[in-house]
Give the backbone structure.
Amino acid sequence: MSQSISTSAPAAKAAQGVPTSSKKAKETQQFTLKTPKGTKDWADKDMIIREAIFSKLTSLFKSHGGVTIDTPVFELREILAGKYGEDSKLIYNLEDQGGELTSLRYDLTVPFARYVAMNGIANIKRYHIAKVYRRDQPAMTKGRMREFYQCDFDVAGSYDSMVPDAEIMNILVSGLTGLGIRDFKIKLNHRKILDGIFQVCGVKEEDVRKISSAVDKLDKSPWEAVKKEMCEEKGQPEEVADKIGEYVKISGSLREVLQKLSSDPVLMANESAKLGVEEITTMTDYVEAFEVDKYISFDMSLARGLDYYTGVIYEAVTEQSAPPEDAAEKKEKAKKSKKDEEDASEYVGVGSIAAGGRYDGLVGMFLGTNSKGKKAPSIPCVGISFGVERLFSLIKQRAQLADKIRASSTQVYIMAFGGGEGWNGFLKERMTVASQLWKAGIECEYLYKAKANPRKQFEAAERSGCPIAVILGKEEYPQGQVRVKVLGTGNEKEDGELVDLSDLIKVVSTKLEELKYDGMDDVTRLLAGL
Amino acid sequence: MSQSISTSAPAAKAAQGVPTSSKKAKETQQFTLKTPKGTKDWADKDMIIREAIFSKLTSLFKSHGGVTIDTPVFELREILAGKYGEDSKLIYNLEDQGGELTSLRYDLTVPFARYVAMNGIANIKRYHIAKVYRRDQPAMTKGRMREFYQCDFDVAGSYDSMVPDAEIMNILVSGLTGLGIRDFKIKLNHRKILDGIFQVCGVKEEDVRKISSAVDKLDKSPWEAVKKEMCEEKGQPEEVADKIGEYVKISGSLREVLQKLSSDPVLMANESAKLGVEEITTMTDYVEAFEVDKYISFDMSLARGLDYYTGVIYEAVTEQSAPPEDAAEKKEKAKKSKKDEEDASEYVGVGSIAAGGRYDGLVGMFLGTNSKGKKAPSIPCVGISFGVERLFSLIKQRAQLADKIRASSTQVYIMAFGGGEGWNGFLKERMTVASQLWKAGIECEYLYKAKANPRKQFEAAERSGCPIAVILGKEEYPQGQVRVKVLGTGNEKEDGELVDLSDLIKVVSTKLEELKYDGMDDVTRLLAGL
């Protein structure tokens, strides 16, 4: 939908802070009318669906005692530093315009940890629905954007082991099933088990994070490629990589994998792995109480890229999460054809639709030392982040959705019928009636024309989707009467019910009640697949 | 609330995209834990009040047939260029990291015009609630921020003269009164009248915009200062400035000022001024039909800084909008004391709480030429923008508000009472009950402890503000029974009603109904001053 346009010379001047003195000067400078790469406008029915997703998740978060916060879209650059591992290169920086150095937030987790530390909060359950920014390769139709929404729920505070973690699993499952998504699984792993595996396989302490990053690529690349990265780029001996390869193949139900790991004496001799297995054992009890264990696949290949995780990690995936089978081929082809890689949708999957984990050290990174030089203890945290654009791209595929959704929610279209001598179109009269309806909380519209014929007004009413028309007749209105007509019944020829103006609000309210018209409710039901 | 902290060496390394290998290294680098200048975190009850403002305005916009859109937080830099006059220097730019040059949006109007042009939209009523960014001197307690929300409603399309403009006045009045703000007035003027005044006073065509900028400062500075700017900085002869001075003093009710202007033969001989007066005359008819004329003060000193307005302009102000009487003195003192000018709250007012106008040329600036080299006609637009932070700072002053508001909205606190031998705290049992309540849509919480004594649980329930407790007794629960207890009645010693587990949902729902508990409804009523 982009098009070339010419901008005016004063425009270019004003960009440098120089005021312009005439709007009419012309220049030949051309630029494309578009949004920045990896971003898009949201409008119309898409917007309604997305708002319904927000509303659904907000109710869910609130029902678990969540309170909401809002942090600035940019943070001091130091706040974000050292939190994202290799992905730090994807952070958007703001220009140094003489002031603080700032960057757009990369997720909602680090700003949350900063908020908890800054305000000395001991415990909180907070949710936050907001945009985050990553200078990644976009794949727009798959919902992989540079600007995208995250819906996060996090629990901060010292509690009994794995209690909030299990509740997060409950929220994850309710969130997805509540949006009508049922064919998902939750891959789950534990950073301490993973660290233990690397240790018993012979990875040096200082190499653990980078080997973890390599394992993180297993959802996109085959083992052979990951092994190559470990050995060639990351300097591991082949036998170390092969040993890791055996472990990361392990996956299955929680009880199955726990059984397997517990009976591995080498692994159980490792303190970190042992602690991780104990925690997952406790958690398994709780997710069984919540009856959400069946969604969980305990998967040793899940590593999660971010630096800050310290305990259980998880991500929810669907079949569409994986890249297409011929992804490598398509990617190669795209490269060769040298076409502008605007969009990687062809050769990537949707990715995970929700993800999170435990991060017990992050708040501590922001805490100072007290007067005795002793560092304040960190606040343990665990959370989940829903990727709304990715969920949206799955939900949008339910084709029947779009038909039933209206972008606007007006209920009454006000018309005036007349003609002949002295007919002024009753514009002020329509305004007066509209004003009364608005005051009574009834959504209404009318055509912004002084005089309009009935056909034009009916067409506009149909476009708006209003279920009811209020008609001001040339003779009837001066007698204090209007007609109320239910639209979309096929009986468009009928005149509608003649009503005293003083009864209008009552009659319209009753008719709306009868029609049970509630647009957003419809959408929410549709979302849930009901 | 800021504090100095030390960050770790790996953090600094990772900021350059280098992965870190150890989380424990220390360094001495110090930075302050804060949000960037002019921004703040929102949380707790403030957040509830702000969300209620959004919700109130959203309903209003929808009731006038508005549909919503969402545009990216940054736009291509060329899109913003040449739209904001002298204020262009306040735009935040993103760093050039090898890609497109982009800037944070300065308002929601220019992105809206870009959207309309890009999608070839002929008419739309859209609302948009989102953050905008201005590198201005912040005055935090007055709600003047660098990152702040705007709530915009705009009508694009060719309609009969002044019909949407009058509806915007209706929305402005309903929006403010609906938020319990009643002591406001709407200053209104017309760019074409103002241009006409400048012309008849002898200002040259190319000086009109900069003289308009000078007049725009009349709400903050006395006429003498503005006159000095016109003569000394902007090169106008003194007699020209004096003539302008006579005109910009004119203000009063719509009918009064229309009468005065219409009877000024010099001004009426000017085509631009005449057209403006005709439009305001038409509009006056309509705002009288809406019964909102009494809020409007037709004020020749209102100029509005932005370049893109072409017709009627307006802003809503309250007593707190003006700077304090001793503003100049305080500002001087602040400068002399050389303290870091973090906050200008002491010597500025709240400013306008809502503002807007007609901008018929803006969409056209983004439209291209067709194949015959003919420029596409622009789409006329008119709109209003509510400044939420400023509204918030007014609403927050109603002290009684805060007491009645809860930040969370959970309704049931689940507890377990027991003790003695074999008592395990019923954690899994509490989870099972919570799970049932959540599935029934009932918000609930429980303490994240395996075992907790009754006192701790009651304290937590009180902190959460839940109106109801569900209590699992050591003997009762295994018999399939729990107790349901209404909290906050003063009768904390009573045991509560013994209920079969199978009836729990029904009993809790009935009790909540009886209590008529709906947190958000309360807030909305309070906001409206009811």
Notes: The first helix of chain A runs from residue 9 to 15. Chain A touches chain B through 134 residues (CB under 8 Å). Residues 1-29 of chain A have pLDDT under 50 and may be disordered.
